[in-house]
Amino acid sequence: MSEESEAENSETHRARLILSLRSGGVSEPHVLSAIERTPRDLFVPDLFQERSWEDSALPIACGQTISQPLIVGLMTQALNADSRSRVLEIGTGSGYQTAVLARIARLVYSVERYRTLLGEAEQRLKALGILNVVTRFSDGFDGWPEQAPFDRILVTAAAPETPMALLQQLKPNGVLVAPVGRGPVQTLKRYVGDGLGEFHVEDMGEVRFVPLLPGVAREL
């Protein structure tokens, strides 16, 4: 296949994905634009390149996954971030969600417990010319207290219960979006601060995420 044909094929798959996201409930133009402008194939392992633009989760290194684009879109939309937002992301993973957030927010702080994943994600972000992301190899449960408070917090692995330590790093009127639950199926929750130290909690439906684990990983 020629380079021109490959480009046309990629554009076709990209357009189909955006239509699928629209039908799935992702309606915010800036979120759709961020996803459309982020080449998912750059974040997917070679073995799964043919499925890069499918609306499905795919395996990556360290037993983790790159999330389904629909979930990325819905979580990003629920976060309600804008160009003034400082966002904390727990779980850099492949860097795909990070890149989408970086196209919307002013600054993204991203924490990852797998050094291998973090290094690869940093290279991808650099290759895309994304410069408004700061990363940290650390325990996601701890968040990033030195940089708190944040306008928004996004958790990309399933917290076993309400992530109180992270909520404490959120501005009084901030928003945190996270999958919460101990089983294979969790509930996606949206916490919205009322400005007085309390949070309104919205259940957004069932999801399946890898668990949020404490500490940093020991990799061979």
What are its keywords?
220 residues, alpha/beta, Rossmann fold, two-stranded antiparallel sheet, 25% strand, globular
Distance between the termini: 38 Å
- What structural category do the secondary elements indicate? alpha/beta
As for the CATH topology, it is Rossmann fold
List the uncertain runs: none
Please, how many helices?
A: 6
CATH homologous superfamily annotation:
Vaccinia Virus protein VP39
Share in helix: 25-40%
User: Numbering strands along the chain, what is their spatial order in the largest sheet?
Assistant: 5-4-3-6-7-8-9
The topology string of helices and strands comes to HHEEHEHEHEEHEEE
CATH architecture: 3-Layer(aba) Sandwich
How is the biggest beta sheet arranged?
Answer: 7 strands, mixed
> Oligomeric form of this entry?
single chain
Overall pLDDT confidence: 94
Mind explaining what this structure looks like?
By secondary structure, the protein is α/β, with parallel strands linked by helices. It has a single domain, classed as Vaccinia Virus protein VP39 (Rossmann fold, 3-Layer(aba) Sandwich). Helices cover 29% and strands 25% of the residues. The chain contains 6 helices and 9 strands. It has a 7-stranded mixed beta sheet with strand order 5-4-3-6-7-8-9, covered by helices on one side. The mean pLDDT is 94.
Task: Give the arrangement of secondary structure elements.
Blueprint: H1 3-23, H2 29-36, E1 58-59, E2 65-66, H3 69-79, E3 86-90, H4 96-102, E4 107-112, H5 115-127, E5 133-137, E6 150-155, H6 164-167, E7 170-180, E8 186-193, E9 199-207
Parallel strand pairs: 3-4, 3-6, 4-5, 6-7
Antiparallel strand pairs: 1-2, 7-8, 8-9
